[in-house]
Design goal:
Helix content: 40-55%
Number of strands: 9
Oligomer: single chain
Largest sheet: 8 strands, antiparallel, barrel
Number of helices: 10
Radius of gyration: 22 Å
Distance between the termini: 62 Å
Shape: globular
Length: 330
Amino acid sequence: MRAIIRGMVRNRVCAFLGVIFLLVCTTVVAEAGDIFTYDTPSQQFGAAMLSPFGYREIVRRTTGYCAETFADIKFNSRQAFVVWVRRQSGYLMLAETMRAHVRKMADTSGNPELAKPLRSLLDEALPKGVQLGGRMAAMALEEGPGTPEMKRGLCLEFNTKATSGAIDLEKWDPVNAKFLQDGITSERETAPADPMGDLGAKSSVSGRDATAFLGRWAGARARMYLLDGTVMAPPGQCRIEFSAQRIVSECTVSGRKMRVGYSYRVDAPGRYQAEVVENEAFPKAIGTRVESLFRVDGDELLLVTFPPVVLGAPEKSPIKTETVWKREAR
Protein backbone atom coordinates (compact mmCIF):
# COMPACT_ATOMS: atom_id res chain seq x y z
CA MET A 1 0.00 0.00 0.00
CA ARG A 2 2.85 2.40 0.76
CA ALA A 3 4.20 1.91 -2.77
CA ILE A 4 0.78 2.68 -4.21
CA ILE A 5 0.48 5.85 -2.12
CA ARG A 6 3.95 6.97 -3.16
CA GLY A 7 2.83 6.47 -6.73
CA MET A 8 -0.06 8.82 -6.04
CA VAL A 9 2.46 11.51 -5.24
CA ARG A 10 4.56 10.89 -8.34
CA ASN A 11 1.50 10.92 -10.60
CA ARG A 12 -0.62 13.94 -9.70
CA VAL A 13 -3.38 12.85 -12.08
CA CYS A 14 -4.95 10.82 -9.29
CA ALA A 15 -5.51 13.98 -7.25
CA PHE A 16 -8.01 15.09 -9.86
CA LEU A 17 -9.76 11.80 -10.55
CA GLY A 18 -12.43 12.62 -8.03
CA VAL A 19 -13.34 15.80 -9.86
CA ILE A 20 -13.44 13.93 -13.15
CA PHE A 21 -15.68 11.11 -11.96
CA LEU A 22 -18.03 13.50 -10.22
CA LEU A 23 -18.32 15.61 -13.37
CA VAL A 24 -19.64 12.59 -15.24
CA CYS A 25 -21.52 10.98 -12.38
CA THR A 26 -24.90 11.76 -13.88
CA THR A 27 -24.32 9.48 -16.87
CA VAL A 28 -26.31 6.27 -16.96
CA VAL A 29 -25.09 3.44 -14.81
CA ALA A 30 -24.50 1.17 -17.78
CA GLU A 31 -21.76 3.48 -19.03
CA ALA A 32 -19.98 3.83 -15.71
CA GLY A 33 -17.65 0.88 -16.19
CA ASP A 34 -16.58 2.23 -19.59
CA ILE A 35 -15.88 5.74 -18.28
CA PHE A 36 -13.83 4.99 -15.20
CA THR A 37 -10.65 3.17 -16.14
CA TYR A 38 -7.30 3.69 -14.42
CA ASP A 39 -3.82 3.26 -15.77
CA THR A 40 -1.99 2.60 -12.50
CA PRO A 41 -2.71 1.13 -9.05
CA SER A 42 -2.06 4.59 -7.62
CA GLN A 43 -4.85 6.11 -9.68
CA GLN A 44 -7.18 3.27 -8.76
CA PHE A 45 -6.42 3.65 -5.04
CA GLY A 46 -7.03 7.41 -5.09
CA ALA A 47 -10.28 7.15 -7.03
CA ALA A 48 -11.59 4.29 -4.87
CA MET A 49 -10.80 6.21 -1.69
CA LEU A 50 -12.80 9.19 -2.95
CA SER A 51 -15.72 7.36 -4.57
CA PRO A 52 -17.91 6.54 -1.50
CA PHE A 53 -17.52 10.08 -0.11
CA GLY A 54 -18.29 11.67 -3.46
CA TYR A 55 -21.42 9.69 -4.14
CA ARG A 56 -22.60 10.13 -0.55
CA GLU A 57 -22.41 13.90 -1.03
CA ILE A 58 -24.44 13.62 -4.23
CA VAL A 59 -27.13 11.68 -2.38
CA ARG A 60 -27.02 14.11 0.57
CA ARG A 61 -27.41 17.19 -1.62
CA THR A 62 -30.09 15.61 -3.81
CA THR A 63 -32.25 14.32 -0.96
CA GLY A 64 -31.62 17.57 0.92
CA TYR A 65 -32.98 19.58 -2.01
CA CYS A 66 -36.01 17.30 -2.25
CA ALA A 67 -36.68 17.54 1.51
CA GLU A 68 -36.50 21.32 1.60
CA THR A 69 -38.41 21.93 -1.63
CA PHE A 70 -41.32 19.49 -1.29
CA ALA A 71 -42.76 19.44 2.24
CA ASP A 72 -44.95 16.40 1.62
CA ILE A 73 -41.92 14.18 0.90
CA LYS A 74 -39.52 15.80 3.37
CA PHE A 75 -39.08 12.84 5.68
CA ASN A 76 -39.26 10.34 2.85
CA SER A 77 -36.25 12.15 1.37
CA ARG A 78 -34.38 12.34 4.69
CA GLN A 79 -34.88 8.62 5.22
CA ALA A 80 -33.69 7.85 1.69
CA PHE A 81 -30.32 9.38 2.59
CA VAL A 82 -30.15 7.35 5.82
CA VAL A 83 -30.94 4.09 3.99
CA TRP A 84 -28.44 4.75 1.21
CA VAL A 85 -25.67 5.55 3.70
CA ARG A 86 -26.51 2.47 5.76
CA ARG A 87 -26.32 0.26 2.66
CA GLN A 88 -22.87 1.67 1.77
CA SER A 89 -21.43 1.35 5.30
CA GLY A 90 -18.78 -1.17 4.25
CA TYR A 91 -17.51 1.07 1.47
CA LEU A 92 -17.58 4.19 3.63
CA MET A 93 -15.70 2.63 6.54
CA LEU A 94 -13.05 1.14 4.25
CA ALA A 95 -12.59 4.46 2.42
CA GLU A 96 -12.16 6.22 5.77
CA THR A 97 -9.54 3.63 6.78
CA MET A 98 -7.70 4.30 3.52
CA ARG A 99 -7.86 8.04 4.13
CA ALA A 100 -6.56 7.61 7.68
CA HIS A 101 -3.69 5.47 6.38
CA VAL A 102 -2.68 8.13 3.87
CA ARG A 103 -2.80 10.83 6.55
CA LYS A 104 -0.73 8.72 8.94
CA MET A 105 1.82 8.16 6.22
CA ALA A 106 2.03 11.91 5.59
CA ASP A 107 2.38 12.67 9.30
CA THR A 108 5.07 10.07 9.96
CA SER A 109 7.04 10.07 6.72
CA GLY A 110 9.63 12.62 7.78
CA ASN A 111 9.85 13.52 4.11
CA PRO A 112 8.37 16.94 3.25
CA GLU A 113 8.39 16.12 -0.47
CA LEU A 114 6.10 13.18 0.23
CA ALA A 115 4.01 14.69 3.05
CA LYS A 116 3.02 17.92 1.31
CA PRO A 117 1.27 16.43 -1.75
CA LEU A 118 -0.41 13.77 0.39
CA ARG A 119 -1.88 16.44 2.66
CA SER A 120 -2.87 18.43 -0.41
CA LEU A 121 -4.73 15.39 -1.72
CA LEU A 122 -6.57 14.86 1.57
CA ASP A 123 -7.23 18.48 2.51
CA GLU A 124 -7.78 20.09 -0.89
CA ALA A 125 -8.33 17.76 -3.84
CA LEU A 126 -10.61 15.27 -2.07
CA PRO A 127 -12.90 17.83 -0.33
CA LYS A 128 -13.13 19.97 -3.46
CA GLY A 129 -14.00 16.99 -5.63
CA VAL A 130 -16.68 15.87 -3.18
CA GLN A 131 -18.12 19.38 -2.90
CA LEU A 132 -18.17 19.86 -6.68
CA GLY A 133 -20.11 16.68 -7.30
CA GLY A 134 -22.71 17.52 -4.67
CA ARG A 135 -23.10 21.06 -5.94
CA MET A 136 -23.60 19.89 -9.53
CA ALA A 137 -26.22 17.37 -8.44
CA ALA A 138 -28.16 20.05 -6.57
CA MET A 139 -27.87 22.50 -9.48
CA ALA A 140 -29.22 19.91 -11.90
CA LEU A 141 -32.47 19.84 -9.93
CA GLU A 142 -32.64 23.43 -8.73
CA GLU A 143 -31.80 25.14 -12.02
CA GLY A 144 -32.63 22.46 -14.55
CA PRO A 145 -35.71 22.59 -16.77
CA GLY A 146 -39.01 21.17 -15.65
CA THR A 147 -42.08 22.08 -13.65
CA PRO A 148 -42.18 21.70 -9.86
CA GLU A 149 -44.35 18.62 -10.29
CA MET A 150 -41.81 17.07 -12.67
CA LYS A 151 -39.00 17.74 -10.20
CA ARG A 152 -41.05 16.29 -7.38
CA GLY A 153 -41.46 13.16 -9.49
CA LEU A 154 -37.68 13.02 -10.02
CA CYS A 155 -37.21 13.30 -6.27
CA LEU A 156 -39.58 10.42 -5.60
CA GLU A 157 -37.82 8.32 -8.22
CA PHE A 158 -34.40 9.12 -6.72
CA ASN A 159 -35.63 8.29 -3.21
CA THR A 160 -36.97 4.95 -4.42
CA LYS A 161 -33.67 4.11 -6.08
CA ALA A 162 -31.73 5.08 -2.96
CA THR A 163 -33.80 2.84 -0.68
CA SER A 164 -34.12 -0.09 -3.10
CA GLY A 165 -30.41 -0.48 -3.85
CA ALA A 166 -30.71 0.65 -7.47
CA ILE A 167 -27.98 3.25 -6.92
CA ASP A 168 -25.76 1.32 -4.55
CA LEU A 169 -22.10 2.03 -5.20
CA GLU A 170 -21.47 -1.15 -7.20
CA LYS A 171 -24.18 -0.09 -9.66
CA TRP A 172 -23.27 3.59 -9.73
CA ASP A 173 -19.49 3.17 -9.83
CA PRO A 174 -18.74 -0.53 -10.48
CA VAL A 175 -14.99 -0.19 -11.09
CA ASN A 176 -14.20 1.45 -7.78
CA ALA A 177 -16.74 -0.66 -5.92
CA LYS A 178 -15.06 -3.83 -7.18
CA PHE A 179 -11.68 -2.53 -6.00
CA LEU A 180 -13.10 -1.83 -2.53
CA GLN A 181 -15.04 -5.08 -2.22
CA ASP A 182 -11.83 -7.05 -1.71
CA GLY A 183 -11.37 -5.26 1.61
CA ILE A 184 -14.95 -5.59 2.89
CA THR A 185 -15.71 -8.61 5.07
CA SER A 186 -19.08 -7.71 6.62
CA GLU A 187 -22.50 -8.40 5.15
CA ARG A 188 -24.44 -5.53 3.61
CA GLU A 189 -26.56 -3.60 6.11
CA THR A 190 -29.81 -1.77 5.44
CA ALA A 191 -32.51 0.25 7.19
CA PRO A 192 -36.33 0.45 6.92
CA ALA A 193 -37.69 2.76 4.22
CA ASP A 194 -40.29 4.10 6.67
CA PRO A 195 -38.97 7.30 8.33
CA MET A 196 -40.46 6.13 11.65
CA GLY A 197 -38.24 3.05 11.53
CA ASP A 198 -38.96 -0.19 13.37
CA LEU A 199 -37.73 0.59 16.89
CA GLY A 200 -41.08 1.51 18.43
CA ALA A 201 -44.19 -0.55 19.06
CA LYS A 202 -47.10 -0.20 16.67
CA SER A 203 -50.76 -0.42 17.54
CA SER A 204 -53.99 0.10 15.64
CA VAL A 205 -54.58 3.33 17.58
CA SER A 206 -51.68 5.75 17.99
CA GLY A 207 -51.51 9.35 19.15
CA ARG A 208 -50.12 12.05 16.89
CA ASP A 209 -51.89 15.17 18.19
CA ALA A 210 -50.42 17.97 20.30
CA THR A 211 -51.57 16.52 23.62
CA ALA A 212 -50.56 12.89 23.09
CA PHE A 213 -47.03 13.29 24.41
CA LEU A 214 -47.62 15.71 27.30
CA GLY A 215 -46.02 14.43 30.51
CA ARG A 216 -42.72 12.95 31.65
CA TRP A 217 -40.95 10.07 29.92
CA ALA A 218 -37.91 7.89 30.64
CA GLY A 219 -35.63 6.65 27.89
CA ALA A 220 -36.18 2.95 27.15
CA ARG A 221 -34.14 2.25 24.02
CA ALA A 222 -32.51 4.26 21.27
CA ARG A 223 -30.74 3.93 17.95
CA MET A 224 -28.46 6.44 16.25
CA TYR A 225 -27.56 6.22 12.55
CA LEU A 226 -24.16 7.76 11.76
CA LEU A 227 -22.68 9.37 8.66
CA ASP A 228 -20.32 6.44 8.03
CA GLY A 229 -23.26 4.03 7.80
CA THR A 230 -22.83 2.49 11.23
CA VAL A 231 -25.46 2.36 13.98
CA MET A 232 -24.93 2.81 17.70
CA ALA A 233 -26.91 3.12 20.92
CA PRO A 234 -26.47 6.62 22.39
CA PRO A 235 -24.67 6.62 25.76
CA GLY A 236 -26.25 7.75 29.02
CA GLN A 237 -29.65 7.73 30.68
CA CYS A 238 -32.21 10.37 29.77
CA ARG A 239 -35.62 11.70 30.73
CA ILE A 240 -37.74 14.12 28.80
CA GLU A 241 -40.78 16.19 29.77
CA PHE A 242 -43.28 17.82 27.45
CA SER A 243 -45.40 20.68 28.71
CA ALA A 244 -47.75 22.83 26.65
CA GLN A 245 -45.00 25.11 25.30
CA ARG A 246 -41.68 23.65 26.41
CA ILE A 247 -39.58 20.48 26.26
CA VAL A 248 -36.91 19.74 28.86
CA SER A 249 -34.41 16.93 28.34
CA GLU A 250 -32.16 15.77 31.19
CA CYS A 251 -29.40 13.22 30.58
CA THR A 252 -26.58 11.72 32.60
CA VAL A 253 -23.57 10.72 30.49
CA SER A 254 -20.43 9.37 32.20
CA GLY A 255 -21.58 10.88 35.47
CA ARG A 256 -22.14 14.31 33.92
CA LYS A 257 -25.63 15.77 34.01
CA MET A 258 -26.83 17.73 31.00
CA ARG A 259 -30.06 19.68 30.65
CA VAL A 260 -31.44 21.08 27.42
CA GLY A 261 -34.58 23.18 27.08
CA TYR A 262 -36.58 23.73 23.91
CA SER A 263 -39.51 25.81 22.80
CA TYR A 264 -41.68 23.92 20.33
CA ARG A 265 -44.84 23.82 18.28
CA VAL A 266 -46.72 20.94 16.69
CA ASP A 267 -47.17 21.96 13.07
CA ALA A 268 -48.82 18.77 11.77
CA PRO A 269 -50.12 15.50 13.20
CA GLY A 270 -47.12 13.51 14.40
CA ARG A 271 -44.61 16.30 13.76
CA TYR A 272 -43.19 19.19 15.76
CA GLN A 273 -40.51 21.85 15.37
CA ALA A 274 -38.29 22.75 18.32
CA GLU A 275 -35.65 25.37 19.04
CA VAL A 276 -32.96 25.09 21.70
CA VAL A 277 -33.40 27.86 24.30
CA GLU A 278 -31.29 26.41 27.12
CA ASN A 279 -28.07 24.38 27.03
CA GLU A 280 -25.49 25.01 29.74
CA ALA A 281 -23.10 22.33 28.50
CA PHE A 282 -23.06 23.61 24.90
CA PRO A 283 -24.32 27.22 24.85
CA LYS A 284 -23.45 27.58 21.15
CA ALA A 285 -26.28 25.15 20.44
CA ILE A 286 -28.86 27.74 21.58
CA GLY A 287 -30.94 28.74 18.59
CA THR A 288 -30.50 25.39 16.83
CA ARG A 289 -33.74 24.18 15.29
CA VAL A 290 -34.75 20.56 14.84
CA GLU A 291 -37.83 18.94 13.39
CA SER A 292 -39.05 15.65 14.83
CA LEU A 293 -41.63 12.99 14.11
CA PHE A 294 -43.51 11.43 17.00
CA ARG A 295 -45.99 8.67 17.70
CA VAL A 296 -47.55 7.58 20.99
CA ASP A 297 -48.57 3.93 21.31
CA GLY A 298 -50.00 3.16 24.75
CA ASP A 299 -47.33 4.06 27.28
CA GLU A 300 -44.58 4.37 24.63
CA LEU A 301 -43.46 7.50 22.81
CA LEU A 302 -41.34 7.18 19.67
CA LEU A 303 -39.34 10.25 18.63
CA VAL A 304 -37.48 10.41 15.32
CA THR A 305 -35.11 13.26 14.46
CA PHE A 306 -32.91 13.94 11.45
CA PRO A 307 -30.08 16.23 12.63
CA PRO A 308 -28.68 18.58 9.98
CA VAL A 309 -25.53 17.27 8.26
CA VAL A 310 -23.02 19.60 6.64
CA LEU A 311 -20.20 18.96 4.20
CA GLY A 312 -17.06 17.91 6.06
CA ALA A 313 -18.87 16.69 9.17
CA PRO A 314 -17.05 13.98 11.18
CA GLU A 315 -17.77 10.44 10.05
CA LYS A 316 -19.39 9.64 13.40
CA SER A 317 -21.91 12.50 13.14
CA PRO A 318 -25.53 11.40 13.66
CA ILE A 319 -27.82 11.61 10.63
CA LYS A 320 -30.87 10.13 12.37
CA THR A 321 -31.91 9.30 15.91
CA GLU A 322 -34.77 7.04 17.01
CA THR A 323 -35.70 7.03 20.68
CA VAL A 324 -38.42 5.10 22.51
CA TRP A 325 -39.60 6.56 25.82
CA LYS A 326 -41.76 5.01 28.54
CA ARG A 327 -44.34 7.20 30.25
CA GLU A 328 -43.64 7.82 33.94
CA ALA A 329 -46.41 7.85 36.51
CA ARG A 330 -47.62 11.33 37.39
